[in-house]
């Protein structure tokens, strides 16, 4: 992935321009790493992606606790002594996670993550190729 296949990594690096943010990863629902910020190694990003997929699955399984088992999961925030981990839906089958220090402005991070999700959605959706689907 660090060999040029981390094509969306620059967008994650851009998100980390917020004060007190640390790392960012983009992952698939099954825990595969899709992109990572420059500040985190590929190996660590892959390990975190697997964990984030499990975290997202656990969060979705508690939807009924909000009153409706069919409600849509949008975001999970975990708080630790040394900071926060934000995990948000980033499109069909994709999730974005950012870690930050305990001094981060949580509202700003949540807002910026939603902006980034919009940008990522445009980048991850490829337009149809000209002539695709026409009989040969």
From TrEMBL:
InterPro entries: Mycobact_SerProt_Inhib_Rv3364c, Roadblock/LAMTOR2_dom. Residues 9-100 form the Roadblock/LAMTOR2 domain. This is Roadblock/LC7 domain-containing protein.
């Amino acid at each position: 992935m660090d060999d040029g296949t981390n094509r969306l990594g620059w967008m994650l690096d851009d998100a980390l321009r917020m004060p007190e943010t640390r790392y960012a990863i983009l992952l698939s629902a099954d825990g595969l790493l899709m992109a990572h910020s420059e500040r985190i190694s590929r190996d660590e990003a892959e390990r975190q992606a697997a964990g984030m997929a499990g975290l997202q699955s656990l969060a979705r399984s508690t939807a009924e606790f909000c009153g409706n088992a069919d409600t849509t999961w949008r975001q999970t925030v975990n708080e630790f002594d040394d900071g926060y981990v934000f995990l948000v839906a980033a499109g069909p089958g994709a999730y974005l996670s950012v870690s930050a220090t305990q001094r981060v402005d949580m509202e700003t991070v949540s807002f910026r993550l939603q902006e980034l999700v919009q940008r990522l959605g445009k980048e991850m959706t490829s337009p149809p190729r000209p002539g695709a689907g026409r009989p040969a």
